[in-house]
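Progress note, project year one: complex with nicotinamide-adenine-dinucleotide.
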Amino acid sequence: MQSGFTHTIDGRGESGDTSFDVVNPGTGTPFAVCPEASRDQLDRAVAGARRAFESWRETTPAERRERLRGFAEALKARSKEIATLLTREQGKPFARAQDEINRAFANLEGLLALELKPELLRDNERGHVELQYHPLGVVGAITPWNVPVLLALPKITQSLYTGNTIVLKPSPYTPLTTLLIGEIAREHFPPGVVNVVAGGNDLGAWMTEHPGIDKISFTGSVATGKRVMASAASTLKRVTLELGGNDAAIVLDDVDVTAIAPRLFWASFGNSGQICMAIKRLYVHEKVYDAMCEALAGIARRVKVGEGFEEGVLMGPVQNRMQYERVLALIEDTRRENARILCGGEALPRPGYFIAPTIVADIAEGTRLVDEEPFGPVLPVIRFSDVDDVVQRANRTRFGLSGSVWSADPGRARAIAQRLEVGTAWINHHVGVEYDVPFGGTKESGIGREYGIQGLKHYTETRAVSVPILPPVPPMPAMSPAAPIAPAAPSANTPQR
Ligand code: NAD
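Model obtained:
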């Protein structure tokens, strides 16, 4: 069993009295022991972050950028170690773990190239008003288990770059890479600027109610996001909620099926379908429906599924037993609905949480697989014939993360994509976060945005600094001891309530 992992609390490594096992989903057995933070440890992490905030907020963006770049260099020097640990705890193929880390670095560097500048709101005869962006204080960041490094690094970057300090909690299923990132951060930031604590759901709930935390940046499921928001309300914390999705992709009748099938496939099955913005409902025009089903099933049958370090493996396991059982239950449900399972449809007969990539045809809304977020390697392919109808069907959901339209005619696709009720609408593409494009959900898929200038703004509070040009004060009447002082007459420039 791997051990020796520590929390990062106020600049020091700490373990504690309790710990829990971390399971390798490729074998289904524990491979490491993770320390579990107590309430006292969380309190000390928050106190350290509050203390550190007083001086960190005074640093300039250029100084913070410099520190973060140094941190990125140190992470890069250990990226193979981080990728190895990521494959062990998350299950994804080693090459994909390296991709995740490289994308996290690219986002970190990209975010640092953005500049959140004060905005001039007015400079005229009424005066000068500037909107400034100030840090909030201590950010509590909470992440899920699907892409732990890709989510942790931008939360650290956005928090610190805008002048905040952070207390970060990874998922108990994948805590180790984030603890390692915290360990590396200790050498690059003053004590208390970056704190990382591992633990279960209770630890997350303590964070959301903690009076010393000013903002919660949460990524996870819709159900937990609602709990986070309710709990954060008790101290009126700011919240960013990046929640689940049930993304629709709409494939029009003019596509080249052979050319786009692999793109559609990986936009759905990448990371074994465990991506918030994966294609989870594939609407295909009836003219190309059969050909598309055949092409997707052909790819699915050829994909090598296995443990992350196996030669030539393209798809890993589902990350944890609970999710594995849920995905298998959703597949079982489609059998009861008389849908057609074109390939896969079952667990692989080996240890670990492996499910063969599963394509389900002749299925529609009103089934669990279409209406819920599966978050696993299974895709419903849904037939449509009318564009207006399919747009309505794509939008008839409480989710609203992202969506896409696929066509040989980008103009036609764009006109349809603009009608999708989502935070991101792609044309002939699906899946991907870019450092300069705000990402987030509409409806129950989230609140707020991360990335881009808009994302940075969500880590700040605005302050309007106003220098009004006022009319001269009217001359005072000669004072006699008995005369009352008359108030100045209101003018156009005097604020009225
Ligand atoms: P989850 O909501 O179960 O857990 C996420 C995190 O919240 C974990 O760290 C967990 O310990 C913590 N947590 C649990 N209960 C809590 C509480 N009451 N208060 C505070 N924290 C609590 O989600 P998951 O199963 O780990 O992740 C899968 C979900 O995440 C999917 O729905 C997926 O779509 C979503 N997701 C969204 C995005 C996005 O950017 N929109 C990205 C990745 C994943």
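The chain has two domains: 7-243+445-463, 247-434.
The chain has 15 helices and 20 strands.
No further modelling is planned for this target in the current period.
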